[in-house]
Amino acid sequence: MPTMNALLQIPDSKLAKEATEILRTYATSLIYNHSLRVYLFAAEQGREKKLHFDPELLYISAAFHDLGLVKEFSSADERFEVDGANAARRFLASHGIPEEQVQTAWEAIALHTTPGVTQYMRPEVALLYTGVGLDVLGEGFEGFPTELREEIVAQYPREDFKAGIVQAFFGGFAHKPGTTFGTVKADVCERFIPGYRSPNFCDLIAASLFPDSRSS
Q: Which among 52, 48, 34, 43 is positioned nearest to 11, based on CA atoms?
């Protein structure tokens, strides 16, 4: 059984340290602490499930997963998840990481807010989703080891996190609310943009330019 100190360690390879420095430089303390909690939660979930995952790749995915909310990484017209995934792709590719690993990190970040899919994908993809789900929504809270959870939160505090993360989400895509269509983040736009309503899928079908023929 790993010691508590071992369970609280983050990868310390040169690549991981560079990812940490990028996160520390551009992210707020709220996003920084959240990202490291996500990694530690996800890594423990992986150990508990006896999954074979790459800790370094999972860590880098966690470090980049919300950087799409930061203006330096935010595009004008992509989902914030895709912006973060693209930033991770550039970072990993610039260090000569094999394409399969790059793609795994991209998928993990791009899908980290998409329910019902990631559990069927590579372990790093599945674990990033569950780590985020635990930290943001409390999914799996009661099943996670209490002492370890408390140590993680003590090391990377949740200072006004519930309100703060919602504001961070909104700040990251307030300029492009249309990119949240079909995702849970549309709820954030509807909450904070007066009069905003996400497009309705049924209305979009009805508005298609294809004419319907009548059945005989």
A: 43
Name the residue ranges covered by the structural domains of the chain.
Answer: 4-158
Residue 1 pLDDT > 60, yes or no?
no
Q: Which structure tokens are listed for 26?
A: 């551009």
How far is Cα 43 from Cα 131, in angstroms, rounded to an integer?
A: 8
Report whether 45 contacts 131 (CB < 8 A). yes
Q: What percent of the chain has pLDDT over 70?
A: 98
CB atoms < 10 A from the CB of 177, how many? 18
Please provide the CATH number assigned to the domain covering 4-158: 1.10.3210
pTM (predicted TM-score): 0.94
